[in-house]
Amino acid sequence: MTGRMAIVLAAGKGTRMKSDLPKVLHPVCSRPMIHFVLDSIAQCGVDHTVVVVGHRADDVRSELANRPQVDYAVQDEQLGTGHAVKICKPFLESHEGAVLVVAGDSPLIQVDSIAALMKTYDEAQPACILGTTQKPDPTGLGRIVRDGEGRFAKIVEEKEATEAEKQITEVNMSTYLFDCQRLLFSLERLTNDNSKGEYYITDCPGILKQNGEDVRAMNVLQPCESLSINTLEELAIVDAEMRKMGYQDASDA
Q1: Could you tell me the residue ranges of all domains in the chain?
Q2: Among 66, 67, 154, 176, which one has the highest count of C-beta atoms within 10 angstroms of its own C-beta?
């Protein structure tokens, strides 16, 4: 199968949300946040979407029951973002072309940002493109390190960053566009040799880079896309921002 595939990571409980509701089903503008992600993906010519479900998987499936061209991969144990993508292997093995990997809790993902990544992929066919943004306060986020010619060198997580690297304001926002077969190559080489014993999708660009592949970081994500949702307070901030930006409240639809 050729074309464009998307993987949406939606298995998490969202412990800090202080609710048993799956994180992606928490409402913004009176609508479960994952719908905004899927709407943006659909506008970018994605032919097939795989939603990775886990915590209360049946509730997520039920909410998305009327969505066309959506399949599900079940992550019974949350062993990291890399593991979440890895369990999509049955869908990936039969696919040729681009694979977009995004978080289901990012309702402010912008169509123009995804379109810019896809345009570069179509023109240059790199192994991987990371969507990045500038964040004045990058605390807690992975920094994008570039070489002397401005090309992507690596992602450095804050706990491993030097003092100089901590000053970098270009950050990774968990928005990736991979060539499918090269994504599979990197997934096979992922390890869980870290303090949490988990597999991270953030390691895949580095694996591909070390293999001599073309890996790029594109600073195309808009400032609003850097707003994350991990707590009820952050949920309220994103809800207010989306209303300010003119997103329609579900009750008005």
Answers
A1: 2-130+174-202+228-252
A2: 176
Per-residue pLDDT at 250: 66
pLDDT computed for residue 3 by the predictor: 85
- Residue 14's pLDDT is 80
Question: What pLDDT is recorded for position 252?
Answer: 55
Q: C-alpha angle 220/225/226, rounded to 5°?
A: 100
Is 16 assigned a catalytic role? yes
Would the CA dihedral through 104, 109, 112, 116 be positive or negative?
negative
Judged by DSSP in three states, 205 sits in helix
Contacts 24+ apart (CB under 8 A), 227-232: 227/108, 228/105, 228/106, 229/23, 229/26, 229/33, 229/105, 229/106, 229/107, 230/14, 230/16, 230/17, 231/16, 231/17, 232/17, 232/18
Indicate the pTM of the whole model. Answer: 0.95
Cα distance between residue 150 and residue 8, in whole Å: 30
Cα distance between residue 63 and residue 183, in whole Å: 29
Q: Which of 16, 151, 189, 243 is catalytic?
A: 16
Structure tokens at 98: 């681009």
Please name the CATH architecture into which domain 2-130+174-202+228-252 falls: Alpha-Beta Complex (3.90)
Tokens 């409240």 appear where?
249
Query: What are residue 55's phi and psi, to 5 degrees?
Result: -60, 125
Question: How does DSSP classify residue 55?
Answer: T
